[in-house]
Design goal:
The protein is an alpha/beta fold. Helices cover 48% and strands 15% of the residues. The chain has a seven-stranded parallel beta sheet, sandwiched between helices. Bound molecules: nicotinamide-adenine-dinucleotide. Nicotinamide-adenine-dinucleotide (NAD) binds next to helix 1 and helix 7. Belongs to the short-chain dehydrogenases/reductases (SDR) family. One of its GO terms (biological process) is monocarboxylic acid metabolic process. InterPro entries: KR_dom (IPR057326), NAD(P)-bd_dom_sf (IPR036291), Sc_DH/Rdtase_CS (IPR020904), SDR (IPR050259), SDR_fam (IPR002347).
Amino acid sequence: DRSLDGLTALVTGAVGGIGQATVLELAAHGANVVLADLADAEDLASGIAARHGVAALAVRMDVTDESSIATARDLVAARFGRADIVVNNAGIMQRLSADHHTLPASDFTRMLAVHVAGSAQVSAAFLPAMRDNRFGRIINLSSVIGHVGLGRRTAYSTAKAAIGGLTRGLALENARWGVTVNAIAPGYVMTDVLRAKIAAGTLDYDRFAERSAVGRWATPDEIARVIRFLAEPGSGFITGVDWLVDGGFSIN
Ligand code: NAD
């Protein structure tokens, strides 16, 4: 199934757990992929290109740094013309066990800078070319925590809820240009980073598995396939949703 043939997808935080699964899923469906991360993605990009017969470009990007976003946009324009699909996936976690009144103010603003301003600025950089081409797909990563809230994760809860507002505003502004803007709100997803925390005893697998109705965490692939679905040309009537992919966590 090459439903994304001829399209170019940029994924921020592409080296992370959900990011890697997403670039693999999009490439497997024929998209050229741009792996944007603070971390080096060269090896990952060449592996994906070899495996799926698509072009894969690694770019260093800090989503809080406008000049690095502009550099990435120019590299993408030179190589592919534009990005048809942008997945705003880069993210950070809140320090453990920090009630809001004990959290340094700089941690709070950093959380908003990466998730909210980062997604907004990366979108702004790639939207004009999408509009010119009368096609675009922006997919933001929010979280079930943005819907239900989580104590000791107030900064994260705030940032992820704000992704919903960003998504709806951009969806309304850009719909007439064939550009859809949606968010995915995953439940708990078993990435390497979180697996290591569980192994170290600083994160409780069972607590969050039991909160979900299906009784387990998601795999990164289960999130990536929903992102791919929203990215497809056939998904043009879905815009402005903040779609829970949480195994029933929010209704349990
Ligand atoms: P991860 O920690 O595995 O990967 C995050 C990636 O983002 C890393 O490669 C990191 O280098 C990159 N990154 C961080 N700051 C950046 C910046 N300023 N500029 C560019 N890149 C930056 O995280 P993950 O678990 O794969 O999460 C991906 C997204 O999904 C995040 O937005 C996260 O909040 C969201 N999410 C994750 C879960 C989960 O359970 N894992 C659940 C809901 C939502």
